[in-house]
Amino acid sequence: MSIVNSQADKIKEISGSNPLKCMKCGKCSASCPSFNEMDIKPHQFVSYVQNEDIQSLVESKSLWKCLSCFACIERCPRNVQPGKLIDAARQIVVRQKGQDYLKADEIPELIDPETPQQLLVSAFRRYRR
Amino acid sequence: MQRIGVFVCHCGSNIAATVDVKKVAEWALKEPGVVHAEDYPYMCSEAGQSKIQAAIKEKNLTGVVVCSCSPRMHETTFREAAERAGINPYMVEIANIREHCSWIHKDMEEATKKAVILMRAAVAKVNLNTPLKPGESRVTKRALVIGGGIAGIQTALDIAEAGYKVDIVEKTPSIGGRMSQLDKTFPTLDCSACILTPKMVEVNKHENVNIYTYSEVEKVSGFVGDFTVDIRKKARSVDMDKCTGCGVCQEKCPSKKTPSEFNRALNTRTAIYTPFAQAIPNVPVIDREACIKFKTGKCGICEKVCQAGAIKYDQEDEIITEKYGAIVVATGFDMIKLDNYDEYAYSQSKDVITSLELERIMNAAGPTKGHLERLSDGKAPKEMVFIQCVGSRCSDDRGKSYCSKICCMYTAKHAMLIRDKYPDVNVTVFYIDVRTPGKNFDEFYRRAVEDYGVNYIKGQVGKVIPQPDGKLLVRGVDLIDNKQILKEADMVVLAAAIEPNKDVRKIATMLTASIDTNNFLTEAHAKLRPVESPTAGIFLSGVCQGPKDIPETVSQAGAAAVKAIGLLAKDKLMTNPCTAKPDELMCNGCSQCANVCPYGAISYEVKEINDHGVRETRRVASVNSALCQGCGACTVTCPSGAMDLQGFSNRQILAEVDAICR
Amino acid sequence: MSIEANEEFKPKIVAFCCNWCSYAGADLAGSSRLGYPADVKIIRVPCSCRVNPMFILRAFEKGADGVILCGCHPGDCHYSTGNFYARRRMTMLFSMLDYIGVENGRTRVEWVSAAEGVKFSTTMNEFVEKIHSLGKNVRLGDLRCRN
Amino acid sequence: MKYSYYPGCTLKNKAKDLDAYARASARALGFELEEIENWQCCGGVYPLGSDEIASKLSSVRALNEAKEKGQDLVTLCSACHHVIKRVNDDMKNVEDIRTKANNYMQLDEPYAGETKVLHFLEVLRDEIGFDKLKEKVVNPLTGKKIGAYYGCLLLRPGKILEFDNPENPKILEDFIRAIGAEPVIYPYRNECCGGYISLKEKDMAKNMCNNIVDSADGFGAEMLITACPLCMYNLKKSTDEKLPVKYFTELLAEALGVKEEVDKA
Q: What domain range includes position A64?
């Protein structure tokens, strides 16, 4: 209980977002370009944090599908901004040792001669500690 | 020395559950001046009041402290009770141990301690109270109604029917307001104009009603019963008495490009215009910004074609000054601007419209003569999407925090009307919640779903995407199916939030009526005085006080009228005796108090003063207690401390401070 | 029951509230059950402009740890302009108080409308917390009464 | 007029042309971009976590250097613009981040968001003015139908970046008009291209980019312009170059008649 609890609090703290403000309108999910790729949908992130089911969140593949495009953040009418919650969950994962979503030895496979530095830098920031 | 009685109310368990009322009464007896203390379950009840009255008589009380709810609730009750028992009503003070104590604290000991301190402060104050006598002021038997929509019309009619004179001031060229723009009304689907027009005619011909259209309130002074109001009657450029309303001027006017306010800018009007066919008065105005004659000096066609010779280019604004006993605010609402909601493509596509625009499109007198068609290409739509809560229920800074209340119902109405008249049109409504409290309201919404096959989807829309072929791709979510939805639509209708008319803040300031952060006027009490402003003599009618539909507006309009009539029926009003009073011995006649007085209540007189045996002629301040409203600005400004406020004197407030900090 | 002070610091806080906006806002906080510490005691005045700097000095002289003045929002004063006077007077007074050792955090002016029960409660909670962080106030003495 | 200039990693490498055209155009328009000395990579993405400090420091260094020179800081790449502007907002408005960052940086004088951050486009719009720009055009791109592609990072969150209306922007359209071409407005211009997702989830990026390009194509665009090397890469890579994609600075240089000198160099 206390561990789960502290993780939910951690997510609230890192994200600076208050899930209690959510009115469950779904505008985040209606705006999300990655919606179909996600197993836990943006609007559900709020209830997972509220229900303190952080385990499911951190195991969710949604973490790696969010583009950080800020569409949900821009349009959320209640300032809940699920994108921040998703990022906080992602932080919880990548801050643990050995949990990087992108391993250095995968990279040669993934790039081509035109790949801009920006792509690698951004992916590193999002996927690794 | 006062003989004070302290009466501690349990308020059922509202107070007694958190405050040990017996202890408060016990402690009261230790306070100086207190000769009697008791507690009772309901002090405000008949029995409770009798207890106070009995104690006043038996113990020869000179002052009373009631420890109970807020003085805003029952101060008058207890003052009247005391007066009936023979002491001056202003010898009663309330210690607010409910709203300011028992309701906000949980710990009994802590709350009891605080209640004792609040009781002590009130006792300390009463020790210094002096009997005060209210003055009298007259009541002007005439009411002013600001706003000529359905709220203003109904209020004016009700007041007029009771036999009092009423003036309506309406900003636009015609009365009728928002309701005149509606096509049909829920939940009966009767035609809006058919039920409104008779009311407009009735109010116009009523002998007790006088209507100033194209006019605005410019200045308000005075107070309850005796307001003085300046009304600016804007130059209509048309002689109201001569005009026959034939309409030839409008047919011939060559300036035809101004967006029509009445049709929500969906089409245009001429520079000389009446807003709509049933306008009252049926006299056009010249929009001087659009008129060629006013812009270039050339033209003058309307003057030439007017058989009645009613065109008056040189007409000027007129200021009318009138006295009123009561003022009713009925300034209504508008839809919010959708500049902050470009994700719905309102500014990018002509086929994304607001609900009020749809009303005009559905209306036979509207820009499309009542045919449902796309404004971009005039084609009949096959798929229509409605989006709810656009700008309502938002806690970001883009929209409004409140629910606009009317949208769920009018959307069900629109959906039903469209499905009824155009059965081949599919209608989809994206909603967050469907809110239908009200008589026959939920049944109405269910009819839309069950009988008319309107497709309600729980979920919001994220973006409306105009397509190259002119269609609109709506990207929304179905929260029940947990699916993102891409729906191609021909028209999208946005249920934009409503907001109080933008002039209301200016008007509230003139009236010194309170207004909340959303620009709705505040009522004196949310439940018990919902149609009165906290400012005496100001009443609230319609959406200016909060979102409402037509039946609610009409009920509130009637209620506001009753309150105004209740005031007008009085010949005299008691004035607040808590007014400023100078100590002539201390006053040096410096005029600083007169400079800060917002009411001009302070003047100076040269007077012979007996200053400790020395007779001198001095200039001293004098307060007109009929004008003084008792704010106390002068008392603090006075450099010699000569000015004091009766009922809230320096000594009284200092005694309260002392009691609290003891 | 006794009224003597506990060992833990229980600040004495005086709140002056205008009758039309802030007192009603405090009532709304009450009827909405929005709690704030019992250390706050409210004195009702007709308008924020009725508050004489003398009242505040007296509070500090009698051992208050904080004084807060609440009035209608600028432009919404029931008496049109009273809160502007209050604002100007308090700016002067508070800077003087700060100079003589009553820190700025112990004095505050806040606009609370009749509809802002939430704001009233949050303001009071914040203010009490601030006073707690500042601790007990130095007591002002009235030199007029000494020889 | 002299500005501090933050080019960013990609502009020194895969997107050299974005940078070179901008510098040449700046000279032609009479302002100078003075590259700050010790800039470090901004990180590419803004760290959203409220407890992230270290990853914001490189931006603070750049911002502080501009402050010391008393100049506004100009960025060109959308990502750098996004990161640096948001960090600047944090330094100005978030006390916790400001204190921690300053504690770490040990500057002579603490940095508190004093520097004004401008995207190159903002310089064109707010400092030069599109009217002025139009006058300087020697080689108008008359008849070209161009779709502006904004993506996410230039626009959102609108409240912090204050760049343009995030749902219906017009700065690039105004720019296109100023260089004599015709803007094509299409609704996907502020939709995401996939960003960093294209490294591991190539299909997702492909899907998104095709939506964008198809929409622009449907509304009649002959080419797309962008300010972001990653958008450029994704749009090209994932759509088999259905439409040509160019940096806006290339068209600017062309319109100002300085493109050839850059190409030769």
A: 2-96
Flag whether C touches A (3+ CB pairs, 8 A cutoff). Answer: no
> Average of pLDDT values for D98-121?
94
Q: B432 CB contacts (<8 Å, ≥6 apart)?
A: A23, A24, A25, A26, B388, B389, B393, B458, B459, B460
CB atoms within 10 A of CB B316: 10
Nearest CB to B632 within list C26, C46, C80: C46
Return the closest-CA partner of residue B109 out of A4, D60, C6.
C6
Per the listing, tokens 């040189």 go with B314
- What are the backbone dihedrals phi and psi of residue B116, each rounded to the nearest 5 degrees, phi first? -60, -45
**Residue B655 in tokens:** 């005694």
Q: Which residues of B touch A27 (CB under 8 A)?
A: 460-462, 477
Chain mean pLDDT for chain B: 95
ipTM above 0.90, yes or no: no
Chain D CB contacts of B397 under 8 Å are 159
A10 at D interface, C-beta within 8 A? no
Q: Where is B614: in which H helix or E strand?
A: strand B614-623
Cα dist from D164 to B550, D26, D143, D172, D186, whole Å: 40, 22, 26, 10, 16
Q: How far apart are CA B172 and CA B181, in angstroms?
A: 13
Q: Dihedrals φ, ψ of D8, to 5°?
A: 90, 165
What is the model's pLDDT at position C145?
62
Of B197-211, C73-87, D240-254, the one with minimum mean pLDDT is C73-87
**Which residues, in sequence order, are bridge partners of residue C40?**
C13
Q: Average of pLDDT values for A36-61?
A: 94
Mean pLDDT along residues D149-166 = 95
Beta carbons of A117 and D14 less than 8 Å apart: yes
Residues of B in contact with A76 (CB under 8 A): 396
B616 to chain A, any CB pair closer than 8 A? The answer is no
CATH of the domain at B321: 3.50.50.60
CB atoms within 10 A of CB A86: 29
Residue B102 is classified by DSSP as: I
Identify whether residues D187 and D210 lie together within a single domain. yes
At B68-87, the pLDDT tens digits run 999 998 999 999 999 999 99
Same domain as B592, residue B451: no
Question: Same domain for D51 and D150?
Answer: no
CA distance D137 to chain A (A): 31
CB pair distance less than 8 Å for D187 and B345? yes
Q: What is the DSSP annotation of D34-61? A: EE-TT-----SS----TT--GGGHHHHH
Burial of B626 (0-12, 13-18, 19+ CB in 10 A): middle
Instruction: Specify whether D190 is located in the same domain as D235.
Output: yes
**Boundaries of domain holding D97:** 2-120
- Chain B residue whose CA is closest to C11: B661
Q: Coil, strand, or helix at residue B36?
A: strand
How many angstroms away from the CA of B466 is the closest CA of chain D?
Answer: 6
CATH placement of domain C13-137:
3.40.50
What number of helices (H) and strands (E) belong to chain D? 12, 8
pLDDT digits (tens, 9 = 90+) for D160-216: 999 999 999 999 999 999 999 999 999 999 999 999 999 999 999 999 999 999 999
